[in-house]
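quick one, 734 residues, struct below
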Amino acid sequence: MTAPGRTELVRYDDAIVRKFVTATLLWGAVGMLVGLFIAMQLVWPQLNFAPYFTFGRLRPLHTNAVIFAFAGNGMFAAIYYSSQRLLKARMFSDLLSKIHFWGWQLIIVAAAITLPLGFTQGKEYAELEWPIDLAIAVVWVVFAVNFFGTIARRREQHIYVALWFYIATIITVAILHIFNNLVIPAGPLKSYSIYAGVQDAFMQWWYGHNAVAFFLTTPFLGLMYYFLPKAADRPVFSYRLSILHFWSLVFIYIWAGPHHLHYTALPAWASTLGMVFSVMLWMPSWGGMINGLLTLRGAWNKVAEDPVLKFFVVAITFYGMSTFEGPMMSVKSVNALSHYTNWNIAHVHGGALGWVGFMVFGMVYWLVPRLYQTRLYSTKLATTHFWISTVGIVLYVVSMWAAGITEGLMWRAFDDTGRLQFPDFVETSIRIIPMYWVRMLGGSLYIAGTLLGIYNVYKTWATRPQVYAEVEAEVPAPTWRKPKAAAPVDDRPVDRVLRPETEAPVHWHRRWEGLPMVFSVLTALAVIVASLFEILPTFLIGDNVPRIASVKPYTPLELYGRDIYIREGCYNCHSQMVRPFVDETVRYGEYSKPGEFIYDHPFQWGSRRIGPDLHREGGKRNHVWHWHHFRDPRATSKGSVMPAYPHLFSDRIDWAEIQDRVDAMAMLGTPYTKQALADAPGLARAQAEQVAKELAEQGGPAGQADREVIALIAYLQRLGIDIKSSSAESAGGK
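---
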């Protein structure tokens, strides 16, 4: 509540917003250029410069740069600017703001260094190793303290709808990050997930899908609810629809992750539940889209002239398209075709480039003149940026739709004799090369627009005043008396542009809005309760992961080889999950069972097949084939886009690291023998000598027992063979 007649002067901190906007544009350019480069690698494999600049190592760098650096900094810019205005208070601490900014940039730099070096957890969108994960948690706490501290010192009694979404983001991202990244360290930059196999897959996609929900959706919906009305000079269409949109989205979204695991070893009930809630998610998502687009009622004439509104309108449209496509792809019959294909890539980039990217650019163009206290350098350049990038998105998405559907149909095609029509996986890879060219063109256009936008911002910055004027606002002083009743309509916070005046307030919700800590607790409860309904049965019901007696732990050498597999990012192109479809069992072998993955920390089921599935790879080919395949993939598989790995033939196995890794796995419950726990390097050497001997007998070179390629071959030859025998070799001996 405020005191009538008494006012205070508030000075907003726009310097921190300027920093985040600059970082947004810088990292956006870097992340997108890396994305273009890895797209080119799929056309020209020769662009894979081993060991540090291969597709497998750069792809996680691209995703982390675009999600956490570009979108993350854009999100922080929006929150720091709008929260101060909505709460009519300067950020709680200038020092915390600076720590947050520089801490986040250091995390991004650490990711940019460690990922190309091969330090990765091997979990999509959660690749960063444990010291960086700890740093993320610390910086996120700093951000949360600064945000909630600002709420505590607010001069608006009630919190506006954009702040609801910011609160949900801060709380839920913290929960997701902590629980998905629980690991046992095995070195300064090496760790193993505490979860294994089925449970790890479930946790990863509970995290992975909701990273999209609460890092790439909710904060940008908050951005929409603040910046769109400001740009359009119109109130939000419906306050009631905002309430429905928020609470249904927060509660339903958290259930949707298992739809990424249809027809896998995950229990069918879990993936089906994920599908049901994904389909339900369509309704609140489109409620938000409708609320955004109808906010422009009476202002559509402005869209033709204002590039800011152009970006916002297309962004919201892509949000609607993505949130229709996602639930559709979650339906099992559709997912059977789309999963592991480039259709997923189309879907992700439609949301990332169209929804997130365009919301950021619209916000930046609206903010920059206000932050730099000057006029935008060129409206025409901004409009040109819009049209070039729009064409780029369309080309990108349509080409990947075509590629994905082509892949799905070719993989499952049988000829008239009942045989696979395209038995060689490479045939599919060759067929979609033209789509990759179109994707490169679309990506190039989008990046060209981005660089044009950066130039426009730079020229605007160049005309800034020598000294920025203090941004001040005279606001009513708070009394902090607890309200006895719901506030009347005219007492709604912020200003008439942001709040519609045509609807009666929803009194119960208005009371919550005046109690932000209670509101935050209720938000956390909605997220936690919905999560536990899925997580607890998966972890507590033993029948979900039945044991298979013949499945044994990886030997010390195989474990080391598996770590090389993860280091090189092989999971970015290969799955290890044969689904129970006729075409997959004919192509790869017996379908995968839940009990086969109980020693997989982390799981390696994959989300995309640029290369064939490897779960039944063990024993299919001899050692010398693998040797030549790693040296020159096109010598063994004509038309392959796989990189060569020459460093595997020169880099030596670090025997000293093996014991620490075996010990860490033992801490997770892996039943290694006493011999393995006492002398894992000795057992690894013995197996390496045997593999090297067999390699030489098959026509390969001799004396290679200490090379990394030997460990990787040992791992690949182990994949999928335990299920075939009841007398499989245990870790550390027979």
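Residues 556-724 form a domain with the Cytochrome Bc1 Complex; Chain D, domain 2 fold (CATH 1.10.760.10).
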